[in-house]
Amino acid sequence: MLLDLVVNHTSDEHPWFVESRSSLSNPKRDWYLWKPAHEGREPTRWPSVFGGSVWERDELTGEYYFHTFSRKQPDLNWENPQVRQAVYDMMHWWIDRGIAGFRVDAITFIKKNPKWPDTLDAYPKNASVLDGGCCNFPGILDHLRELRDQVLVPRGMVTVAESPGVAPAELADYIGEGRGVFNMIFTFDHVDVDARFDQPYHYVPWTLSIWKSRMTQWQSDLGDNGWLGLYLENHDHVRSVSKFGAEGLWREPSAKTLATWYFLMRGTPFIYQGQELGMTNTPFEGIGEYRDVSSRNAFRDGLAAGKSEDHMLDYLAKRSRDHSRTPLPWDASAQAGFTRGVPWIKVHPDYRSVNVASAQARPDSVFHHYRRLIALRKSRPELVHGGFEELYAESDAVGAYRRHLGERTSVVLANFTAEAQRLPRAHRGDVLLASSGRFDGQTLAPWQSVVVAE
User: Fold this and answer.
1) Which of 42, 56, 162, 252 is catalytic?
2) Pick the CATH number of 76-360 from 3.40.50.10320, 1.10.8.60, 3.90.1150.10, 3.20.20.80
3) Got the DSSP string for 382-427?
4) Could you tell me if 303 and 200 are in contact, meaning their C-beta atoms sit under 8 angstroms apart?
5) Neighbour tally for 139: CB within 10 Å
6) pLDDT tens per residue across span 372-397
7) How far apart are CA 432 and CA 412, in angstroms?
8) Contact predicate 415/246, CB 8 Å
9) Could you give the percent of the chain with pLDDT greater than 90?
10) From the CB of residue 217, how many other CB atoms can be counted at a distance below 10 Å?
11) Distance between CA atoms of 83 and 30, rounded to whole angstroms?
12) 3-class secondary-structure state, position 168
């Protein structure tokens, strides 16, 4: 079991923060980031990831505390050695209870710019709205290597870390053999292909070739010198079928092909709840049905910036985290079998047909396709440890790559359209897995994926 490790911030109800905010002289005051007002306003003009300012004024002392995300999530001060030691002690406590490792949350935000510039306009914005402020800021590796040496390596922990702001050129520092900090990282280029963080509330059009490159570039740069966490969905992103696949008639075929595409790359594949069912985005009716604080803040801030209500609702329909947070549909009973009461967020209206019980009962379901992919990875060493070579990189219809290890080679082919696609050349060999129908070696059926042993 991996524990979700959240150490960039705590709740504002955590005992540490309750003490910290109690007075200017409390011993834990410096466990968080407090600053006085600057010329009658916030200490800096930095934007929060969840909208608004990163600073929240506390009435008791009149100072401001820093929060990268929600005002309910004050950031810890990682420059304080007492904080770091308290974090390490907490980690040891959990390790002593038998966990295998950690999924490390938002870890690239723990280092803040010590100069505290008033604005971040002078910094590039290709990684985060806080680039130049506290996203993978220089000096962070000092903290991360101490974490590695004090806890992760001595206790033999398995780790996968969220890593916004980390570039492929930095892979050796994060997951490289020898000096790397973690076993795996989650990258964000592919799931944020439709966003630019210097253009908030704007959906960015993308092409298949661009999206493919966001994944295959990491594979190529990785080589044999590290390991990735492979994923298409998690609690912070929308449903992959709605974003990268096709709803309606092609929901299940596209869900299977998306699964094949990412599951057989180099790394450890992660499956998010509901992804194995081919769930789609939820049709929320108005801002009142959204629950995510970042979605609600985006709606508020977007209207304040002059965007129309229709524009913001369309944006949230494409980007809100709430789409992945609706209750898991277990069966076709009331509230999808998730609860006998009223869930905190609405159940997806498709739950009567898209649910666990139905998927388990049908051999051709998305659920069973994932089971076949798991079995295939276990039976073909090249699909785990083999090299990676992208094929048809320029295509905006087909994705393909070759995995090879010694004398063994497997080719993954995927049609990302609702039309048959003839490949530039034939791929002859045993078909190890087909998401649907038959494969003649050169023509992929609509939304079909196949794995061929060449």
Assistant:
1) 162
2) 3.20.20.80
3) HHHHSEEEEESTT-SSEEEEEEEETTEEEEEEEE-SSS-EE-SS--
4) no
5) 12
6) 999 999 999 999 999 999 999 999 99
7) 10
8) no
9) 91
10) 16
11) 9
12) helix
Nearest of 263, 259, 219 to residue 380 by alpha carbon:
263
Laid out side by side, the sheet with 64-66 consists of 34-35, 64-66, 55-57
Which residue carries 């492979």 as its tokens? 230
- E strand or H helix at 360: helix 356-361
Residue 236 exposed, middle or buried by CB count within 10 Å (0-12, 13-18, 19+): middle
* Span(s) in the chain for CATH 2.60.40.1180: 384-453
Tokens of 151: 């806890």
CB 129 within 8 A of CB 197: yes
Residue 348 per-residue DSSP state: P
Residue 105: active-site member: yes
162 is catalytic: yes
Neighbours of 376 (CB within 10 A): 17
Q: Catalytic residue, from 58, 63, 105, 146: name it.
A: 105
Residue 198's pLDDT is what? 73
Report the distance separating Cα 413 and Cα 371, nearest Å: 19
Inter-helix orientation angle 309-319/293-304, to 10°:
150
For the chain, give the mean pLDDT. 95
Render pLDDT for 77-87 as a digit per residue (tens, 0 to 9).
999 999 999 99
Find, among 169, 173, 266, 260, the residue nearest to 223 by Cα.
266
pLDDT for 397-443, tens place per residue? 999 999 999 999 999 999 999 999 999 999 999 999 999 999 999 99
The arithmetic mean of pLDDT across residues 200-219, rounded, is 94
Distances (CA, A) of 390 to 85, 205, 218: 44, 23, 11
Task: Provide the 3-class DSSP secondary structure of residue 3.
Answer: strand
Amino acid at the residue 435:
S
Percent of the chain residues topping a pLDDT of 70: 98
CATH architecture, domain 384-453: Sandwich (2.60)
Would you list the DSSP string of 55-108? Answer: EEE-TTTS-EEE-SS-TTSPBB-TTSHHHHHHHHHHHHHHHTTT--EEEEESGG
Range(s) within the chain of domains with CATH label 3.20.20.80: 76-360
The CA distance from 39 to 223, in Å, is 51
